[in-house]
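Hello Y.,

Per our agreement to keep a running log of every chain we model this quarter, I'm adding this entry. I've kept the format consistent with earlier entries: sequence first, then predicted structure.
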Amino acid sequence: AAALGVALPDDWGSKLVASMKKACGDNFDPAKLFDPIQQLTGLRFPDDRQTLLGKSAALSVGSGLDPEKLTNSTDMSGLPVGIKVAGDPAKIKAALAKLHLPDGLQATYTDSGAVLSPDSSYSTTLAKNGNLGSDGTFQDLVPNAEQASIVLYLNGAGLKSAVTSLAGGDHSITDNFDHFSGLGISTWREGNESHASIRVNVR
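Predicted structure for the entry above:
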């Protein structure tokens, strides 16, 4: 129903620190910024942060999402949401071991990374090589997905049940949403040029 993905360059954590030092001046000490977070979480920055986000990371939301449960319940089990990270599964597992994951949130490891989800079935689906790139609506809305650094995708049909629930019986909202097929936003670089695309499909 919805996906947000980010592709990260090699050694992006170190590059981020270098960029911060360049912006803040030679007197900037990254340790003063990261040490409190490291003490609180046990994670080493920027190394563990780079490990947890990997080469790319994607937040995925399935079509069966119940907004009422998402906003008003502390029981997250069964929610079709998940984060898929492409990276070294052993390093990701070691970094996650330092954190206290919320109750019900499960980590599944694959040869190419890891998946975090409160729904074991949805986690299994995400762990497999996804077929979103072969979806016709996705291809129309994000035609340059393979080279994109950031992608946001919303599928109208997959979100209809969630929108109906949120509308609370307001047919003006659901009737208008019936015409919405999807939204795709992407950014990418070609050489020294940055590009962005926003596409909306209606019917």
